């Protein structure tokens, strides 16, 4: 089963009145609150999901910028979104699926049938499909979520991971090398991690490239079917997208949700720089 839904498939599901719940997860580093964009135009029936408060929690800097929510917090949020037992959930954003992938990663662990809308809201509007401007408040759902967190690495597990598998740093190369760090106190990467920016898997519209191309890209850094692989990024959002792409080609991956924001804010953690794992 694919992790993605096309705009035509979603439009058909909605027209049929299927049990589908659409989530608008608009979030970007430069615009973390996407509610205003949602109100300007969203897929009819879609519920706005604030990533910072419902798909993550907040703590000390040493926990990273987007720590995982508890299962209870996520379940309360999912019920607010109107998710009921047996629903298909489709998440989208306006940032090439990066934010929507965070919803996919969490809800999939929780036992929900969840997909990401290929191309996001831009593909929907490009197809000439209608948008709505209301603030959707659905009837509270009854979904019961499985415990989440089993696909997440702790900081110690992330540190040890390169000894037995491939730890992917999916940030931009200049951040991996330590040339620049716009958000965190120290620049560089986790020793032993290899760089593979998640954008390499996407076309200009934000859709994932074909399976053969994606597999070749992963193979270039030693990730093949059956590999032990985990991903991290700045704060655990983009890494979930790499996990989504890996799953789509049949490779299971874990995510270090604390990512560089946790590593760089934890005293005593070693830092590597340059274009090699170190």
From TrEMBL:
Give UniProt keywords alphabetically: Repeat, Transferase
Q: Which InterPro entries match?
A: Rhodanese-like_dom, Rhodanese-like_dom_sf, Thiosulphate_STrfase_CS, TST/MPST-like
Which Pfam family is an annotated match for this chain, by its short name?
Rhodanese
* Protein name per its UniProtKB record: Sulfurtransferase
Q: Which residues form the Rhodanese domain?
A: 16-133, 161-272
Domain of life of the organism encoding this protein: Bacteria
Say which species the protein is native to.
Microbacterium croceum
Q: Which PANTHER family match?
A: SULFURTRANSFERASE, THIOSULFATE SULFERTANSFERASE
């Amino acid at each position: 089963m694919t992790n993605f839904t096309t705009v035509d498939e979603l439009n058909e599901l909605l027209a049929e009145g299927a049990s589908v719940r659409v989530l608008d997860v608009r979030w970007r580093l430069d615009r973390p609150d996407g509610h205003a964009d949602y109100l300007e135009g969203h897929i009819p029936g879609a519920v706005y999901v604030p990533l910072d408060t419902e798909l993550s929690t907040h703590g000390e800097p040493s926990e990273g910028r987007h720590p995982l929510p508890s299962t209870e917090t996520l379940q309360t949020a999912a019920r607010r979104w109107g998710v009921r037992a047996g629903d298909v959930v489709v998440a989208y954003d306006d940032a090439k699926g990066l934010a929507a992938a965070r919803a996919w990663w969490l809800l999939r662990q929780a036992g929900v049938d969840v997909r990401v809308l290929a191309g996001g809201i831009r593909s929907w509007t490009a197809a000439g499909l209608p948008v709505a401007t209301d603030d959707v408040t659905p009837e509270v759902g009854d979904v019961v979520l499985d415990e989440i967190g089993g696909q997440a690495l702790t900081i110690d597990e992330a540190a040890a991971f390169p000894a037995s598998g491939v730890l992917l740093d999916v940030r931009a190369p200049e951040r991996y090398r330590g040339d620049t760090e716009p958000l965190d106190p120290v620049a560089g990467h986790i020793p032993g991690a290899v760089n593979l920016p998640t954008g390499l898997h996407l076309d200009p519209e934000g859709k994932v490239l074909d399976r053969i191309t994606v597999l070749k890209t992963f193979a270039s850094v030693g990730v093949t079917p059956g590999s032990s692989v985990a991903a991290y990024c700045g704060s655990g959002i983009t890494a979930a997208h790499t996990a989504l792409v890996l799953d789509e080609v049949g490779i299971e991956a874990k995510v270090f949700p604390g990512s560089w924001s946790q590593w760089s804010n934890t005293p005593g953690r070693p830092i590597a720089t340059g274009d090699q794992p170190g």
